[in-house]
Amino acid sequence: MRPRSARGRATVAAIVVVLLALAATGTYALTRETIAHVDLYEDGVALGPDGTVYRLPAGFDATYLEGSRVLDPATLDDDDLDPDGDVTTAIKPVGGGSPASALADAAGAEQTAEESRAWLAAGTIPGASADLEDLGTDALLDLHALVLDNGASVAAPSPPWWYTWPRDGAFVAVALARTGHVDDAADVLAFLQGVQEDDGSFQARYLPDGSGPPDDRGEQSDGPGWMLWATDEVLAAAPVDDRAALRSRLDPLVDASSTYLLSLVDVPSSLPPASSDYWEVEADELTLGTAGPVLAGLEAAAAIYADDGDGERSRILRTAADETRSSIEQTFGAAGYPREITGGARDAATAFVLPPFQPTPLEGATEAWVASVDEMRRPAGGLAPGGGWKNDGISWTPQTSLYAMTAATMDDRHVALSWLDWIDSHRTDSGAIPEKVLADGSPAAVAPLAWSAANVLIALDTLDRSAPAPPEVSDTDAPVDETEVSP
Q1: Residues 6 or more apart in contact with residue 487 via CB below 8 angstroms
Q2: What dihedral angle (degrees, nearest 10) is formed by the CA atoms of 222, 226, 227, 229?
Q3: Is the bond preceding 448 in cis, omega lying within 30 degrees of 0?
Q4: Whole-angstrom Cα distance, residue 340 to residue 332?
Q5: What angle do CA 184, 396, 377 make, to 5 degrees?
Q6: Alpha helix ranges (H) inside 82-213
Q7: For residues 439 and 425, what is the distance between their CA atoms, to the nearest angstrom?
Q8: How, if at all, do strands 395-396 and 44-47 pair?
Q9: pLDDT digits (tens, 9 = 90+) for 183-237
Q10: Sign of the C-alpha dihedral, residues 427, 429, 431, 432?
């Protein structure tokens, strides 16, 4: 565990003064009554010797064995491991498995930690070019803990989040592939392929045992789009000699997802119908949060089939992508890319019509993305899901890290680093990225959140790949060995 600097959080009274001052200037309209509080549900995640996933109580400040999410048994006491203890003060398994007392097995803990270190060594740790390797290491280890043996990528180590969202899984797969863990990324996509509906659609979320959805939230049309975008990214990251086998393994996912998207846009408007999106609320109007991923999926599918040599299928998808792109520009774009096709405030989906989701920015999308930041910024410095989101003062790390990823892809290194530094400074005591950050800068809700960790890893990897090469040292610049120089 790295040494953590003091957070320096202000008192509630001082925070209210600052926020009301911002409101007075028109920078942020917040009152005492609208400042929301959300508990920190857990401080982080831990792995047991037998693979059990545990949630750590808030404020735990875990000491992990090096290169792992295995707790150091020497730092645990009876209260930590009490199987009958209060969930707010004791370590608890989530999703079933051994009680926390299993964490006291020193030999088993070291063996599991060694396996984790070997896993890390098999890939790359992003962040060196930004001096954020610690952030990259922690995000990777958290994803490693949250991807189960069957490939299910769970959103967070908390019972209400112990599900697999297709969107989150897509980003996790890309993050794993970008960091050299292509087999794990393929497992994540293969799990989602296994739960995909017969018509190619996806439900909002699934039980991690693959038995189906946990409730009746219904379908989300962004799911197939995210699957195709992620598959294209994973194929690109795979060693050349392995791509044919990987593509064959994911044939059903690619075929069903692309067919479903074509059915959605096979209408005069070339736009999909309204659907719930990443806000996960019922949508009466088409949102950019649906249209953007659908376009991203069409673009990715056209590229995948072209790489396969299937020119006819690629041409069909390319035509659909071009028509859908044009329709989005003429509708959403003409209004400045608001959340809903009928207008209103922008939201984080402005990132979905920019690289890395689209080959090139849609017309006017870059300007809209920049403008959206002021609409979404919250007092602690992060972003809300959208300008029309409730005015509660809470920053959300999925959207903040998404903007870091987009900025890195758009070669705006300074902006990307500022978002990443913000995320780094608002982690929990155990080093996890929380879902939310309160107006006073406190981490809140679940931690770690897989989607945020994945976004951070993609952003760090992008920065590393685009970082300027260090200057070459010539012979004349080399240090002189004074022991070989005569007086």
Answers
A1: none
A2: 140
A3: yes
A4: 8
A5: 135
A6: 106-121, 133-146, 166-178, 182-195
A7: 14
A8: unpaired
A9: 999 999 999 999 999 999 999 999 999 999 999 999 999 999 999 999 999 999 9
A10: negative
- Determine the Cα–Cα distance for residues 137 and 116; give it in Å rounded to an integer: 11
Q: Are 258 and 201 in contact (CB under 8 A)?
A: no
DSSP 106-124: HHHHHHHHHHHHHHHHTS-
Please state the φ and ψ torsions of residue 219, each to the nearest 5 degrees.
Answer: -75, 155
**Residue from 86, 88, 93 nearest 71 by CA:** 93
pTM of the model: 0.91
Q: What does residue 404 show for φ and ψ, rounded to 5 degrees?
A: -65, -45
Helix residue spans in 211-364 (DSSP H)? 222-237, 243-249, 251-265, 288-308, 311-331
**pLDDT tens digit string along 17-58?**
333 344 334 444 555 447 899 999 999 999 999 999 999 999
> Nearest CA to 5 among 427, 381, 417, 394?
427
Is residue 328 a contact partner of residue 361, using CB atoms and an 8 Å limit? Answer: no
Phi/psi at 40 (5° precision) = -85, 115
Classify residue 323 by burial, with Cβ atoms within 10 Å: 0-12, 13-18, 19+: middle
Six-digit token pair at 288? 């950019």
Query: Which pair of tokens denotes residue 36?
Result: 């929301």
3-state secondary structure of 302: helix
